[in-house]
Amino acid sequence: MAHTHRPESEIALRVKAIESLLVEKGIVDPATLDTIIEAYEHQIGPHNGARIVAKAWVDADYKQRLLADGTSAIAELGLTGFSSEHMVVVENTPQVHNLIVCTLCSCYPWAILGLPPTWYKSFAYRSRAVIEPRKVLQEFGLAIPDEVEIRVWDSNADLRYLVLPERPQDTEDLSEAALAGLVTRNAMIGTAKVQPPAPPSTLAA
Amino acid sequence: MNGPHDMGGMQGMGPIPIEPDEPVFHSEWEAKVFAMSFATFCNFFPVDETRHASERMPPGDYLNSAYYERWLYALELLLTEHNLVTPAEIEHRIAELAQGE
Question: pTM for the full model?
């Protein structure tokens, strides 16, 4: 899926050469490289954002603080981090659907959602999200009715966004942790809605 | 800077490439480019300079490259501009490694 214009083996060799030079010159430490990769592969990811969303769903005061000053409210949970220093949180409602893009680059709240998926970084998403958001959302299987307003937020180097999705119906009995388990990465970018939990098997029978 | 990176509203870029269950990195070289960039923009040049460097990629190459290829371009450009590594050293090391393989 990388669609590189040079053979992958050629790029891999180039990267290996640069790495060996940087290590040899003491510019980077191999253990640090491993730590960075491990952190972004396994520790930093959408589960951080899901915690923020679930807390806002169960705590009306927190939600108010989150929408008024996302940066501070996220800091309350200790989730401030690299590439998420200044955050604005936008709320989905029955009348408004929010969508996040970065047309210039691929700015994304790394500390909250991890590294962005390929589609977020693609030229197609960066170019089209601002000119035909409804068509783009249809490609994700999300049909937004005409009467619902779509607001597209273009991120930049200094300011990044997070969507507060709508809480699904019939989730009153769920704990905050169980609610967090329902929240997906795409729902926090605005390319999906949060789905209600699957019905218990006793009801399905 | 007015370049091909300013692509909001452009048309003709095709369907959104949605990949189910996508890994964080698709190969070891992607992970290494990310980690080396991260380590250097924490210690040598700020992330904004890295972004600007990727925007200095020639437009034809920019539009014909994958995300981490643009990161690699920026990393190499800044390493050489800051005299941390010379282009000749990189080419020499590539040749050495290729011979060893």
Answer: 0.92
